[in-house]
Design goal:
The chain is mainly β. Helices cover 4% and strands 38% of the residues. The termini are far apart.
């Protein structure tokens, strides 16, 4: 017989945020729009973070160590865009995005409590003697870890304790309008993405200590945002009449 799962709508989460927006037309040829968000998003590992996540303690689905930031939590996020009208019909439209690192979960890598793979994987077990040392218990057996936890000398780290890489992207749109008469107009467009050629790993890092722990293994893709892995560009044209 395979595993039997009981699913329930009992997730708990919390979001607190402050949004600030600044808009101004600096002159007849230049305008700026900026957005800043200061926020915090918390959730229990076994519930609202992702559908079908499991708690790490079957006897306590709201254990303290399972409460942590959501995978897309960003403490700070800043977006600044502008519009610059230049002579000869040229127009520049840059946009810069920056966000503080998103979290990811550190996992012990073994079945610490003997509950099987259908239970949420145990977070990194930390020693109270060296709570900042993520490798102190790396090579311990499950029995050693359980003994240390029972003695009150070890504990599971918080869900999504680790943070990845800060997000940064600079894009630019350049356009040139050509008048072909009173009404017809041709607009030539060039768009550049990720001008700094930055590899945005975000929180795509290995959290399992038995593998390539702490190494990037993917790229971030924020919702609604084009995030190329490297610099890319495109050209286009628009004709109106």
């Amino acid at each position: 017989m395979g595993p039997i799962n009981v699913e329930a709508s009992v997730g708990r989460s919390r979001y607190d945020g402050l949004n600030i927006e600044y808009r101004r037309r600096m002159s007849g040829r230049f305008s700026i729009i900026s957005h800043y968000v200061f926020s915090r998003s918390l959730v229990y590992n076994g519930h609202a973070a992702e559908f079908k996540n499991r708690a790490t303690d079957v006897d306590n689905i709201f254990a303290k160590h399972d409460l942590g930031p959501t995978p897309n939590d960003e403490r700070h996020r800043l977006v600044v865009s502008g519009l610059v009208d230049l002579p000869a019909g040229l127009q520049l439209a840059p946009i810069m995005q920056w966000a503080s690192p998103r979290p990811y979960d550190g996992q012990q890598g073994i079945d610490v409590f003997g509950w099987g793979t259908e239970v949420g994987p145990a977070h990194i077990v930390l020693s109270k003697e060296s709570p900042n040392d993520l490798t102190a218990t790396k090579d311990w057996t499950a029995a050693q870890l359980r003994t240390c936890i029972s003695a009150g000398q070890c504990y599971q780290a918080q869900y999504d304790l680790l943070r990845g890489q800060a997000f940064y992207q600079l894009d630019l749109r350049i356009s040139k309008e050509i008048r072909l008469g009173d009404a017809p107009r041709l607009k030539l467009i060039f768009q550049a993405f990720n001008l700094t050629n930055r590899a945005n790993f975000g929180n795509k890092y290995v959290g399992d200590r038995n593998t390539s722990f702490g190494r990037p293994n993917g790229f971030i893709t924020p919702s609604g945002v084009t995030v190329p892995r490297s610099f890319s560009g495109e050209v286009g044209a628009q004709f109106t009449f």
